[in-house]
Specification:
The protein has 656 residues and is an all-alpha fold. It is built from 26 helices and 2 strands. It has one domain. Helices cover 66% and strands 1% of the residues. The longest helix is centred in the N-terminal third of the chain and has 36 residues. It is globular. The two termini are 37 Å apart. The model has no long low-confidence stretch (mean pLDDT 91).
Length: 656
């Protein structure tokens, strides 16, 4: 399946357009995020309409297709890979992360005395006027055109920070690309891993085959599924703008039905969110995985109540200083031990594959198989090794000891690899970490493992790429690899991905910087980015002033998490009847599962009933209903996002 240049060119410009528009849409208009999550709205919305257009074109000009199915998949993959960079994947917090210790330094917090001496001058814009204008906006910036704003941006203050951090980001991206190339054969061929989030795009691509497209779009199950979210969000969207229109609730606050003490006290904040698209993803996922997600979420809530019944009132202060996005209770540090053991389990599963590619990399075996359509196995191994070395040297150049840099980078990529597995195999389009990689290091070594400069650099670099994983690059790369692994023209497709990624990085950062200087961070919807960045520096300050090790309860629960995960992976691997998948345990305390647990329950229940009473035949028919839920939800999400571009507020269809 050859990919014509037109698909690569269209995909490039659409992807760059999403990157350029996202900061304005998300931060200024506060409309539905265009690139949110690992099944982003804008790329799929564009894919749906392009598929419909191509289907009509192909019916009119049968011998001259506008785009083939594989070409549409390539266009979608190019948009998918970089859509997150312009928001939570990087740009949302990047500039605040670099300027917070300068702009928010005060006599009370003493950041100037404690943090500034260990901040490398080349990594931060030390022009205080440039930083002030970033938060307040240029004088008269609102009246300036974008070209004028570009001319007035103090580029001299930003040149060195952007250059050095750009090197770090590109090197990390390179390591991720090579890692995906290295592990993809194991995932796609050896394990035949399920990719639930790819089912609908694959069907849309197949729909452009010689089979009449009318058979897809005219499917009665598909139309019935689409009708539900279209009606739901049409009614609720109109209610958002015109309150006199009635609405159907999609959020049920059920915590009041549970007591504040006793076994069920962990559910006093329980919420039920209704997202038709995520019910569809859950139905298309493995029954074992869907079951595991909501079961482990329930068990996590019961554990909180059980500890209270047993008299273990463990204060949150026992955590010490943590960098985890949602880490709130000591028992949640189970996830640290679980991540480590699950990573070792994945490595053990792929041991023969890794042994083979290492032998090829060392020229012990002559054949260098192309386990990926992107690189040969030999090139992938050396790409990971040299890229990891380059990032390590970058960290040591800016003040981190060599051994510390190796451990920190190892933790960063280990957490990212495990999260990638959860997202891609589990079909979790919205995923957040509970504990950060640095929390795992602190739990095992304590804060004295770091020098002052090393601690600050580790925390800031973690915030740049390795903690806000809602739009992380690596899962999108593995999804793109899945969608393009049968295509020819692999050199051309790979070059398009690399060029689009580099251009997307530049455009995303430039778009965010121009937006901030035009309006000022204070006037934009960046409160979450500001607060989380301030928390990072406040935690660094406290650790520098009082490097207290985590309480013993953290160690206890880390060990508990490792033991539980070890039991789970052994049972999963040895007993075919074992009902729970280890991936579910990794999401027990994720804030994503607090939103999605009910969707996975409904999707799992429908899947079980369908297979129990109708078997595979019924499943193949009914799946179009759940595909309709996904398409309808995203169609309405994209439509209301377009309306939000031209209004002061926007109705949100999907979780943000």
């Amino acid at each position: 399946m050859n990919i014509r240049p037109r698909a690569l060119i269209i995909g490039f410009f659409l992807a760059i357009g999403i990157c350029a528009l996202t900061p304005f849409n998300n931060a200024y208009r506060q409309a539905a995020p265009l690139g949110g999550g690992h099944f982003p709205l804008a790329p799929f919305y564009i894919l749906i309409w392009m598929t419909a257009l191509c289907a009509l074109w192909n019916r009119r000009f049968k011998t001259h297709p506008l785009f083939t199915g594989p070409e549409l998949m390539t266009v979608w993959a190019l948009m998918l890979v970089i859509s997150g960079i312009a928001w939570t994947g990087l740009a949302r917090t990047f500039f605040i992360n670099l300027t917070a210790p300068i702009h928010f330094a005060s006599v009370e917090n003493r950041w100037k005395e404690v943090l500034w001496p260990v901040m490398h001058p080349d990594l931060y814009p030390h022009d205080e006027q440039a930083v002030l204008d970033l938060y307040s906006g240029l004088r008269g910036g609102r009246q300036m055109g974008w070209g004028e704003v570009f001319q007035h941006v103090p580029w001299r203050a930003w040149f060195l920070p952007l250059a050095y951090w750009g090197i770090f980001i590109l090197l990390c991206y390179w390591v991720m690309i090579c890692m995906v190339a290295l592990i993809s054969r194991q995932a796609l061929t050896n394990e035949r891993m399920n990719f639930p989030l790819m089912r609908v795009p694959e069907l849309l691509g197949e729909m452009l085959d010689p089979t009449p497209s009318k058979a897809f779009f005219g499917n009665r199950f598909l139309l019935a599924g689409m009708a539900i979210p279209v009606f739901l969000h049409l009614l609720n969207g109109l209610n958002f703008y015109y309150p006199s229109v009635p609405q159907l609730p999609t959020l049920i606050l059920s915590g009041s039905y549970f007591p504040k003490v006793g076994l069920f006290s962990g559910f006093t904040k329980l919420k039920i969110y209704i997202y038709p698209a995520f019910i569809g993803f859950a139905f298309l996922s493995s029954k074992q995985i869907s079951l595991s997600f909501w079961v482990f979420f329930i068990l996590g809530g019961l554990l909180f109540g059980l500890l209270g019944i047993l008299g273990y009132q463990i204060p949150a202060a026992a955590l010490g200083i943590t960098f985890g996005p949602t880490l709130a209770q000591p028992e949640e540090t189970q996830i640290i031990g679980a991540f480590v053991v699950f990573f070792l389990f994945l490595f053990w599963l792929a041991r023969h594959h890794f042994w083979g590619v290492v032998r090829q990399a060392l020229f012990i075996d002559e054949k260098s198989s192309s386990g990926s359509d992107w690189f040969s196995s030999r090139f992938s191994v050396w790409g990971v090794a040299l890229g990891f070395l380059a990032v390590t040297l970058w960290l040591t150049y800016f003040g981190m000891p060599l051994f510390t840099a190796v451990v920190v980078l190892g933790a960063f990529f280990m957490f990212t690899l495990v999260a990638t597995r959860v997202i891609c195999q589990g079909g979790v389009a919205y995923f957040t970490l509970t504990a950060a990689p640095l929390d795992g290091i602190f739990a095992m070594t304590g804060p004295h493992f770091f020098t002052h400069a090393g601690l600050l650099l580790a925390a800031v670099s973690q915030k740049v790429l390795f903690v806000d994983l809602r739009e992380c690059l690596m899962p999108s790369l593995l999804h793109a690899r899945k969608m393009t692994h049968k295509f020819h023209s692999k050199g051309r497709v790979l070059a398009a991905f690399l060029v689009t990624l580099a251009a997307g990085l530049v455009v995303s950062l430039a778009a965010m910087l121009l937006l901030c200087y035009k309006f000022g961070i204070r006037e934009l919807s960046l409160d979450w980015a500001t607060q989380t960045s301030l928390t990072v520096y406040d935690n660094i300050y406290q650790l520098l002033q009082n490097p207290v090790a985590p309480g013993h309860w953290v160690t206890v629960f880390v060990v508990v998490g490792a033991v539980v995960m070890l039991v789970l992976v052994i049972c999963y691997h040895r007993f075919y009847w074992w009902p729970l998948h280890p991936i579910g345990y990794l999401t027990t305390y994720s804030s994503a599962m607090r939103i999605l647990w009910f969707s996975f329950f409904i999707g799992w229940l429908c899947n079980v009933l369908c297979m129990r009473y109708g078997g595979v035949v019924l499943f193949k028919k009914v799946r179009y209903f759940f595909i309709g839920l996904i398409i309808g939800d995203f169609l309405m999400g994209g439509t209301w996002a377009l309306i939000g571009l031209f209004s002061d507020a926007s109705y949100q269809v999907l979780p943000t």
